[in-house]
Design a protein that fits this description.
The chain is built from five helices and 26 strands. With 431 residues, the protein is mainly beta. A hairpin with a 3-residue loop joins β25 and β26.
C-alpha cells in the first residue's frame, strides 16, 4: 500500500533476516589469554579436549563445522585462525598440535550472532563510489541500514543497488555469512577499521567496538561530502552504551576502510546530527537537535567540535507537536537546501515531512510541508516500534528524489518523487 499521495513507493521490502549472521568471539568464562596452568578455567578445559583429539577425529569435527556453512564466499578457516591467533598463549603448554586442531580451537571460541534478527531499518542512501559497468543513465548506490539483533544491539550494515534513468530500482541480495572488519588502529575511542577487499559490501558489518558504542551504533546518516573536487563519505550516528548516548562520526572513501571518531562540544551530547554535503561560507555545517524538540543550524571549523547554534525550525503543526528532527543530510537543489524532517505527534506517531532552506543562508526557512509527506498506514503500523516511519537520508538522482525509509522500526522500503513536484508542495507554505 502506498503510504503517501506525494511519493511513489516502490515494491521493495528489505526485511530482517535471522539467517544472516556474523561470527564473533565467544568467552565461556575467563578469556584464554588469562591461561594459568595451575588455576585452570573452562577455557583451558576446552582447549585440552580439542588438542587431545587425534587427527582423524579433529578433521571430522572441522569438516562438520565447515559443512554447516556451505556458501563458497565464506572464509571460515581464516576467521578460525584469527581467533586462534588472539589466544596464542593457550598453545604454550602443548608440545605438538596440528593445523586442524588449531583451527578447531579458534572455532570453539566463536559463536554466531544473528545481527538483524529483530529489525532492519532507518536507512540512508548515497551514490556508490564505483560506477564502473553501470548502464548509461543509471546510478549504482549504497544503502546503509541499522540492524538489530539479540539483546537490542544495533550495528551498521549495507546493501548495493541500482536506479535506472526511468526510476526503476533494484537491490542486490545479501550473502548469509557477514564479516567483521580488522581493527588497524585504535587511539582512545577513535578506531580505524578495514574489511577484506574481496568481501561483498553486503557482508560488511560494523558492530559496536568501544564502550560508548557497546549497546549500539544507531541511525547512521551518510552523506557524500564534496570539498576541493574530492568526495568523502561521512556519517553521523548515535553511540549508545546502554546508559548514555553521544554523536559520533564515520569517515570513508571506499566503504572498505572506515574511521570512527567521537564528536565533541555541547551539540554532540544528543542524537540526530546531519552534515551538509559541502562547506558553507568556508565552514562545516550541521543540522542538530540538542534541545530534544527543535532543529538548529550549527557550524564547525574542524568537523569534530560542535557548539550550539541558531534555532531554525520548531514544532508548528499537530503531527509534530511533541518534537521534530531531521531525516538525514540536506540535499542541494537549485531552489535551496531540501531537508527531510520527522515529526512526532499523538501516541508518539512518527511521520516524515520536509522543509526548504535558503541556499545562501540555511538558517532561513523558505518552504515547509504543512502535512506529513509520508506517514504510517493502518496495514503496516505494527512492528518493533509501532506507528513509525523514519529515514536517515535521501539523495537526488536526475529529476527525482530517492527516499529510503523504515516502517515501524522493522523493515525498510524506498519511495521516489519528482523534484519539481516536491518543491511545489513546500512552496505552498513559505517559511
Amino acid at each position: 500500500m502506498n503510504q503517501s499521495p506525494f511519493f511513489n513507493r516502490h515494491p521493495l521490502y528489505l526485511r530482517p533476516d535471522p539467517s544472516r549472521v556474523i561470527v564473533r568471539a565467544f568467552r565461556p568464562a575467563i578469556e584464554p589469554r588469562d591461561y594459568n596452568p595451575v588455576d585452570t578455567t573452562r577455557a583451558n578445559h576446552i582447549v585440552d579436549r580439542v588438542l587431545a583429539l587425534d587427527e582423524t577425529e579433529a578433521q571430522a569435527v572441522l569438516a562438520s563445522v565447515l559443512d554447516n556453512f556451505n556458501d563458497p564466499q565464506r572464509n571460515l578457516l581464516e576467521i578460525f585462525e584469527q581467533r586462534a591467533a588472539e589466544m596464542e598463549l593457550v598453545f604454550a603448554g602443548h608440545a605438538a598440535f596440528s593445523a586442524t586442531q588449531r583451527s578447531l580451537v579458534g572455532a570453539y571460541f566463536l559463536h554466531e550472532y544473528s545481527f538483524e534478527a529483530a529489525a532492519l531499518f532507518n536507512p540512508s542512501i548515497v551514490p556508490h563510489p564505483d560506477q564502473s559497468g553501470v548502464e548509461p543513465g543509471s546510478l549504482r548506490f549504497i544503502l546503509s541500514l541499522r540492524a538489530v539483533g539479540e539483546g537490542h544491539i544495533s550495528s551498521l550494515t549495507f546493501r548495493r543497488g541500482t536506479i535506472s534513468g526511468e526510476g526503476e530500482i533494484s537491490i542486490e541480495p545479501p550473502v548469509r555469512l557477514a564479516c567483521l572488519p580488522h581493527i588497524s588502529r585504535r587511539i582512545g575511542d577513535s578506531v580505524d577499521l578495514a574489511f577484506a577487499a574481496d568481501t561483498n559490501i553486503s557482508q560488511r558489518v560494523i558492530f559496536p567496538i568501544t564502550e560508548a558504542q557497546s549497546n549500539g551504533i544507531e541511525d547512521a546518516r551518510f552523506v557524500a561530502f564534496r570539498d576541493r573536487g574530492r568526495t568523502t563519505y561521512f556519517a553521523t550516528y548515535t553511540a549508545y552504551s546502554g546508559r548514555a548516548i553521544r554523536s559520533e562520526l564515520i569517515e570513508t572513501r571506499d566503504f572498505q576502510s572506515f574511521r570512527l571518531m567521537p564528536l565533541k562540544g555541547a551539540a554532540a551530547v544528543n542524537k540526530g546530527m546531519a552534515l551538509f554535503p559541502r562547506k558553507i561560507g568556508g565552514r562545516f555545517a550541521m543540522i542538530a537537535r540538542y534541545d530534544n524538540e527543535s532543529l538548529h543550524l550549527i557550524y564547525s571549523d574542524d568537523l569534530l567540535e560542535w557548539g550550539l547554534g541558531t534555532p531554525i525550525l520548531r514544532p508548528e503543526y499537530p503531527w509534530e507537536f511533541v518534537q521534530i528532527g531531521n531525516c538525514g543530510s540536506p540535499i542541494e537543489l537549485d531552489e535551496g537546501w531540501l531537508l527531510f524532517t520527522h515529526g512526532v505527534g499523538p501516541i508518539r506517531r512518527y511521520s516524515i515531512g520536509a522543509v526548504l532552506l535558503d541556499k545562501e543562508d540555511p538558517s532561513r526557512v523558505i518552504g515547509r510541508a504543512r502535512v506529513p509527506l509520508v506517514q504510517p498506514e493502518r496495514s503496516e503500523r505494527e512492528g518493533y516500534v509501532p506507528n513509525v516511519v523514519y529515514s536517515c537520508g535521501a539523495m537526488k538522482f536526475g529529476d527525482r528524489i530517492v527516499l529510503p525509509y523504515a516502517i515501524s522500526d522493522t523493515f525498510s522500503t524506498i519511495a521516489t518523487v519528482k523534484v519539481d513536484k516536491l518543491v511545489g508542495i513546500l512552496m505552498q507554505s513559505p517559511g
